[in-house]
Design goal:
The chain has 2 domains: 3-35, no CATH class; 69-245, no CATH class. Helices cover 27% and strands 32% of the residues. The chain is built from 6 helices and 12 strands. The longest helix is centred in the last third of the chain and has 34 residues, at 232-265. Residues 1-46 have low confidence and may be disordered.
Length: 269
């Protein structure tokens, strides 16, 4: 911290500049004592935000977002899956669960004999999803519209894929989840999910780079890697429906609890 002495008449000539950059300590008859210099501007970290406008005209592999599933199915040999609430037709339920976590779906919280047997509360997910497997990609439809792709790739390519994403797009967030798959006698078999989110250029499309790690109780780790693209308008729309279902379920549970408490509360005379 530095002090300096300046003639009062000189200070009066440029007082606005000094007031902006210094703190006046004492004003004397002929001199002014001031403190401080080199004011630092506040550094504000800019975070990429996602608007609600669907402005990604590129789509994915030249397939436009929002395309009707009937139109899409005309050009593929695969049959669309039945309507479901598991997001897509993965090889295991854990792959659907990792996507559910990214959409904020809560667990059931079920425990038996002290063991955590909780699973995603699938009843909160809208029964509006369908998927079609084409070109090693799961093309996901919500309410009949193309909204998302999920593709698994070799874990040995993970660093290269991440490097390509980071060189083109801004990383915006990181997510970490884990859950017990099977309770062993000493060590649990757990699943860990690490996801990094990117913003697709000037568009409002979210890209998730996902690493799924199965920590097996016998000390082995099996890793799977995925890419997921979804425009924010669809992402937030799905989250909003899930949120509405959560609110309804919460209100129903509270109402049921109030009914169950009523006989006991009537005992108060």
């Amino acid at each position: 911290m530095r002090y300096c002495l300046i003639a009062k008449n000189q200070f009066e000539k440029c007082w606005k500049n000094f007031c902006n950059n210094f703190v006046i300590i004492m004003m004397l008859t002929t001199f002014v004592i001031i403190i401080g210099c080199d004011r630092k501007e506040e550094q504000v970290k800019t975070v990429a935000t996602f608007g609600m406008e669907q402005n990604d005209q590129e789509g994915y592999n030249k397939i436009q977002w929002g395309l009707n599933i009937t139109e899409f199915a005309k050009n593929v040999s695969s049959t669309p899956s039945e309507l479901n609430n598991r997001f897509f037709k993965g090889e295991s339920i854990h792959e659907s669960k990792m996507i559910a976590k990214l959409f904020g779906v809560p667990d059931t919280g079920r425990k038996v004999a002290g063991l955590d047997l909780s699973d995603v509360n699938w009843g909160l997910v809208p029964l509006k999803f369908q998927s079609i497997d084409k070109d090693d990609i799961q093309w996901v439809f919500f309410d009949g519209k193309f909204v998302m792709i999920i593709s698994q790739f070799k874990t040995s390519s993970y660093d290269a894929v991440r490097g390509d994403l980071a060189s083109k797009y801004k990383s915006t967030n990181n997510y970490n989840f884990s859950w017990v798959m099977q309770q062993m006698e000493q060590t649990p078999d757990t699943m860990e999910v690490k996801a990094e989110e990117f913003k697709r250029g000037a568009t409002n499309t979210r890209i998730f780079l996902i690493k799924e790690i199965n920590h097996m109780g016998i000390g082995m780790n099996v890793t799977s890697s995925f890419l997921m693209y979804i425009p924010n308008a669809y992402y937030e729309g799905i989250r909003n429906e899930i949120g509405q279902n959560i609110a309804k379920a919460t209100a129903a549970a509270q109402s049921q609890e109030a009914v169950q408490q009523q006989p006991d509360r009537q005992k108060v005379q």
